[in-house]
Design goal:
The complex is a heterodimer of chains A (327) and B (266).
Chain A (H helix, E strand, L loop, with lengths): L4 E13 L5 H9 L3 E14 L4 E5 L6 H8 L7 E6 L9 H4 L2 E5 L11 H11 L4 H15 L14 H13 L5 E5 L7 H18 L2 E5 L3 H7 L2 E6 L2 E7 H8 L2 E8 L5 H5 L3 E5 L3 E7 L3 H11 L2 E7 L3 H13 L1
Parallel strand pairs in A: 3-7, 3-8, 5-6, 6-7
Antiparallel strand pairs in A: 1-2, 1-4, 8-9, 10-12, 10-13, 11-12
Helix pairs in contact in A: 4-6, 5-6
Chain B lengths: L1 H19 L3 H26 L9 H17 L4 H11 L3 H4 L5 H31 L7 H27 L7 H15 L11 H9 L7 H7 L5 H30 L8
Helix pairs in contact in B: 1-6, 2-3, 2-6, 3-6, 3-10, 4-7, 7-8, 7-10, 7-11
The chains are: A alpha/beta (327), B mainly alpha (266).
Chain lengths: 327, 266
């Protein structure tokens, strides 16, 4: 099977003006401009197979959105290659654009003063959808996203979450085979986030579409992406299963103890690194491989009332990834 | 394929029209603004000419010229520096780049729908003015027949050149400044501040070869039978030449510019 998305040594540099604040710097910049090159995407390579859902992880400014814009054909790269469904994205061929979508949480294609339905009709014509296919897809999207009530209201009167749903529908009317989703859950409440996640899962299952998404929310990644690509400062740091990321960057477990009576801190520190401790509760971090043995010893040697063993939270793992890179 | 482009264009046109109908008061004010300048020129010239003629224009000829000017300048108005340039700078171009239809068509739909809606407000004002001023008019049938093609070419040149200036936004955030220079030149050489025939000799010669006259003044001269015979044929040929040149410039600037599309909001 050939990959739906194939990226090789992709590079995108931006030139940005650079000057200090103040009048003097401002005057100086009239005569001489200083520019700085930002390496938004710096030599990344990866493949995405048909039907895969891959999460793009990285802090703000890591290059995630730039990468999605390159792959959807909005930007031309500085160097490197990419193919999506066999097309070079920035060639922006009609056949290519008809099979992909890029949905950005903060950017909208919907006409602001018109009901969403008007934008849908424009897309129907532009994508050359037959009446029957359009109706069927619209029905499906209306059901999945619970859009019925929203279609005839001017977009400016929709809430942020409602707008996001309408935006998703507008981007999916043409049944794209590849979905680029940039922060699809940004700015919407928890319930709506959950709905959007469910929707993406169902859409992927029903159509076999390939999905590449970015998100700040770990819940999105946990729910949607079996595989994550981590980038920072434009470089690819990790590409693999989400679980593997935890193993690589945070290969330990956190054991939380509730004690029947207080014990000396020195007595617990022999089991592992004490993360925090108060009178009757202690949290200890220990290597994953030793967790079972350490737990057994503690149960035998300490006055344990209750005990739990957990993986570190994903937020912590990501933090570890980026810290390690910075140091 | 071609029918899909046209269907897409028609759908965009419908949506843009519906969108503009949301701004009735704004449209009415623009309609009013469109007639203010020509009225000023009309008043100045009809006062200056008094009972005589200037370069073959008597009082009624100036009135007629500026009445036609109101319509032509409206129909050939280029709004791209105000619509396309900001969308390049802020990244609002992105959704249009992602559709399988060249953004050219969307810009065209916006341009045409703007003029169509505005016309609804302009026409009553115009009819009122024509009824008040009632200039003498003896129609030149050939001129009137050729007015439409000349008008369409003028609108095309204007739209394409306006788009070229707007696309400078791919390089600079100040495309508007370049446009202002262009507009000043059009004011002088395009037959706005005065009919081209009234300009001093060397400016007239410049106006005949440069594109500005072919975006406003020339179709008016054609409609009123001010250009005849060989001069008319040459004028139409030059206008057709500028239409092709503007289209070529559009294609070149678009292809080069879109590679640089990287606005912060893109």
């Amino acid at each position: 099977m050939t990959a739906d998305i194939r990226v090789r040594n992709l590079v995108k540099h931006y030139q940005v003006a650079d000057r200090e604040g103040g009048l003097r710097a401002s005057l100086r910049s009239v005569v001489r401009r200083r520019h700085r090159v930002v390496r938004a995407v710096d030599d990344i390579s990866f493949d995405v197979e048909p039907g895969e859902i891959v999460g793009f992880l990285g802090p703000n400014g890591a290059g995630k959105t730039t990468a999605l814009k390159l792959l959807s054909g909005l930007l031309h790269p500085t160097s490197g290659e990419a193919t999506v469904l066999g097309f070079t994205p920035w060639g922006r061929r009609r056949e290519f654009l008809s099979q992909i979508t890029l949905i950005m949480g903060q950017r909208q294609q919907l006409y602001w003063d018109l009901p969403a339905l008007d934008t849908f009709l424009v897309n129907k014509a532009v994508f050359g959808l037959e009446d029957a296919a359009y109706e069927a897809q619209l029905d499906q999207l209306v059901n999945l996203l619970e859009l019925e009530e929203l279609l005839t209201k001017p977009v400016r009167q929709l809430s942020l979450g409602e707008r996001m749903k309408a935006e998703l529908a507008a981007g999916l009317l043409h049944r794209p085979r590849v979905l680029f989703l940039d922060e699809p859950t940004i700015g919407v409440d928890v319930t709506m986030q959950q709905r959007i996640r469910d929707f993406v899962t169902r859409y992927n299952a029903a159509t076999g579409a390939t999905v590449l998404l970015t998100s700040h929310y770990m819940a999105d990644m946990k729910a949607l992406a079996e595989r994550v690509v981590v980038i920072d400062h434009g470089k690819l740091l990790y590409d693999g299963p989400l679980a593997g990321l935890v193993d690589r960057y945070a290969p330990h477990k956190t054991i939380t103890l509730h004690l029947e009576r207080s014990v000396d801190r020195a007595d617990v520190s022999v089991y592992g690194e004490v993360v925090d401790a108060d009178d009757l509760q202690v949290r200890i971090r220990t290597e994953k491989a030793k967790a079972a043995a350490v737990t057994a010893r503690m149960l035998a040697e300490l006055p344990v009332a209750d005990l739990s063993v957990e993986d570190p939270p994903l937020e912590y793992v990501i933090d570890q990834v980026f810290r390690r890179r910075d140091s | 394929m071609r029918s899909r482009t046209l269907a897409g264009f028609a759908a965009l046109l419908r949506a843009e029209l519906a969108d503009l109908f949301q701004y009735r008061i704004e449209m009415f004010l623009y309609g009013l603004w469109q007639v203010v300048n020509p009225i000023i020129y009309l008043v100045i010239w009809s006062t200056v000419v008094g009972g005589g003629t200037i370069a073959g224009y008597a009082r009624d000829d100036f009135i007629l010229y500026y009445l036609v000017f109101m319509v032509v300048s409206h129909l050939t108005l280029a709004i791209e520096v105000y619509t396309m340039a900001p969308s390049i700078q802020t990244g609002r171009l992105s959704p249009h780049l992602l559709r399988p239809l060249h953004p050219f068509w969307r810009a065209g739909a916006l341009n045409i729908s703007y003029k169509a809606v505005n016309l609804m407000f302009l026409v009553p004002i115009w009819v009122g003015l024509a009824l008040i001023l009632r200039p003498a008019f003896s129609p030149d049938w050939l001129g009137l027949a050729l007015f439409l093609p000349s008008m369409v070419m003028a609108a095309l040149i204007s739209f394409l050149i306006g788009s070229c200036f707007a696309m400078l936004a791919f390089w600079t955030t100040r495309s508007m400044s370049f446009w202002d220079i262009w507009m000043s030149l059009t004011l002088l050489l395009g037959g706005q501040v005065a009919p081209v025939a009234v300009l001093p000799g060397f400016l007239q010669q410049a106006a005949v070869v440069l594109p500005m006259r072919y975006t406003v003044g020339f179709p008016i001269e054609v409609a009123l039978g001010r250009v005849q015979g060989a001069e008319l044929a040459a004028g139409l040929a030059i206008q057709a030449g500028w239409t092709v040149a503007a289209a070529a410039a559009f294609v070149v600037i678009w292809r080069t510019g879109v590679k640089r599309y990287a606005a912060v909001g893109a």
